[in-house]
Amino acid sequence: MWNTAIFVPATLLWPVTAAFGTIVSYNVMATVAVALSAWCGYLAARRFVSNDPIAAAAGLLYGFSPYMVAESIRHPHVTLAMFPPLALILLHEILVVQQRNPLLMGTLLGLASAVQLLTGEEILASTALVAVIGMALLMLLHRHEVAAHARQALPGLAATVACFGALAGYPLIFQFFGPQRVSGLLQPQNTYVSDSLGFVIPPRVVWLSSNASAAATSGFTGNATENGAYVGVPLIVLFAVAVVLRWHIPAVRWAALLASLLALLSLGPWLHVGGRATSAPLPWVILGNLPLLRNMLPGRLMLFAFLGIGIVVGDLVAALIQAGPRRGAVAVGALVVALLPLVPRLPFISTSAEVPGFFRAGGGVAQLPPGSIVLVTPFSNNHSSQAMLWQATAGYAFRMPEGEAFVPGPTLGPPRSLLQSTLDGLDRGEAAPTSAGDRARALDDLSALGVTTVVAGPSPGHDQIVQYLTALLGRPPAQSGGVDIWRDVTPLT
User: Fold this and answer.
1) pLDDT computed for residue 54 by the predictor
2) pTM for the whole thing?
3) Tell me: the pLDDT tens digits for 273-332?
4) How far is it, in rounded angstroms, from Cα 282 to Cα 273?
5) So what's the pLDDT on residue 382?
6) CA 114 to CA 118: how far, in whole Å?
7) Residue 58 in contact with residue 313, Cβ under 8 Å?
8) b/e string for 364-389 if b means 16 or more Cβ within 10 A?
9) Given this model, what pLDDT does residue 493 score?
10) SS (HEC) of 144-196
11) Using an 8 Å Cβ cutoff, are 92 and 138 in contact?
12) Strand 478-480 and strand 453-456: pairing?
């Protein structure tokens, strides 16, 4: 529950995983995530935009925004973003439209929330935060209307809480009160935020980016995956024009204010300019210290901002199309110009996923004794996950004292050891410690981890790792299926 286990998508994709393997299943999920998110964004925009093709453009802006494209590089749990627009649809029905049974709508929202909890908890938490902000904004803008709708809305919201509690109560209790609960900060604060220049400098994932712009964005804090704030000058201008011309429309006024506020919150607790944190405090400095929100990455709030921008701009373009063909042509042209800079760079970023023959069906992994604990290099932690892929390809025929996971303790993954630091350093080209004391500590680490087999797989520092492990274990390895292997390690330690 503290990790991105994506239970629901994994279950739905089980036939693909079983038939074609984890890589095909992952590729299907990563592709479907943006497409389904865009479709749900269209369904939400259609409630506020009177023209279906323009609503579809708003959905494309949401589903294929720079945020979604950047996060698709390695974070499917936050690109499976169908829930936010669906929550908007249901809340709009419960709070504003009120044409359908509020108990039914509330139950559907509770069910969708429980599914999202088991898909990606961060998206659920951020959607809840945005919903609270959005409802507060609604009450400020339309106090009397909200009071008139409250009697019918309250049963729907109560049904949401009851349904969600019934379905998600046990997982949440296990997460926050169970034996493996995690506490403290899981991610560094004031790092994964939107840079103020990130709104106008194209990131590497869009086709408009140049070497200069890519170099500029590489200096932002965080990494390329979290650099998803790019809106572009043309779209910012079109959004501003839409706000001015359509401010009298209640939905536009609400969506524009909410999108702008979320973009502000995405900047994090302190203003960043060109990769440098300033001393200027921002609203997130308050929200970021609240329970449960401390581990939320503020930069990811841009997901919701793009949906709001799409609704506001889409409303203007649809209104101008209705005003006549000449105005409609100008509006559509302006929309195309505004969206062109956001077109993703093709071919999309990909990574080769090679698996040594040792870990494949019929490979040497089948000869390992049941329950073997295998140390695999490159060491799987927050820098490399290859060993986790190899373990999955082997059908989990062995256990590993490594992996990328939040566990109780101060670090991402199992507590770091001298052995892990040494193996990581060798892959980075660093020299290995050679003293007798360091060798004894490394052997103690192997013993404490219960390692029975050591496997050195392909990696940048493979030759240096083999040389180090040969000296550490006192004998050369055997070769099997593209890896170097030391068996029966425990007696040696």
Assistant:
1) 98
2) 0.92
3) 999 999 999 999 998 888 778 889 999 999 999 999 999 999 999 999 999 999 999 999
4) 13
5) 59
6) 7
7) yes
8) bbeebeeebbbbbbbbbbeebebbbb
9) 46
10) HHHHHHHHHHHHHHHHHHHHHHHHHHHHHHHHHHCCCCCCCCCCCCCCCCCCH
11) no
12) unpaired
Q: Which amino acid is at 50?
A: S
Q: What is the pLDDT of residues 410-460, one digit of tens each?
A: 666 667 788 989 999 999 999 998 899 999 999 999 999 899 999 999 999
Count, residues in the chain = 493
What percentage of the chain reaches a pLDDT higher than 90?
Answer: 79
* Pair of tokens at residue 146: 């909200």
Q: Is 379 helix (H, G, I), strand (E, B) or coil?
A: coil
First to last CA, the chain: 35
Asked if 41 and 310 touch (Cβ cutoff 8 Å), the reply is yes
CA pair distance 36, 42, nearest whole angstrom: 10
Radius of gyration of the chain (CA): 26
Residues facing 455 on adjacent strands: 376, 485
From the number of C-beta atoms within 10 Å of its C-beta (0-12, 13-18, 19+), residue 184 rates as: exposed
Quote the CA–CA distance of 80 and 30 in Å, as a whole number: 8
Q: In the chain, how many H helices and how many E strands? A: 20, 6
Which segments in the chain show pLDDT lower than 50? 493
> For every residue of 380-405, which 3-state class applies, written as one string?
CCCCCCHHHHHHHHCCCCCECCCCCC
